[in-house]
Specification:
This protein is α+β, with helices and mostly antiparallel strands. Helix content is 28%, strand content 46%.
Length: 101
Amino acid sequence: MLVSRRFLLSACLALTALLSSMNVYALRCGSNLVDEGDLKFKVLQSCGEPVSREVIGYVDRLQVGDRVRVMNIEEWIYQISGNYQSLEFEGNKLVKITPIR
């Protein structure tokens, strides 16, 4: 009985640590939800135009045949329900959503 309680406690702690390290933050725009992996088109359709758009850098991705593909890193800022949110895109893909405090 003692072994199974220790195992259960260890498993719960490990799961909590795993979940807390993951970014599982999505953004609700009205009745729509945008999440990491979504395309710019979906974000624009769901949330409209951002308050701000800035190119903040570039990223290189290795492709087939040793060719390098360079993509913009953009930050879009939205104000939703009085709170600001930062959305980071690599190329056309949403990679990070961060609340601005």
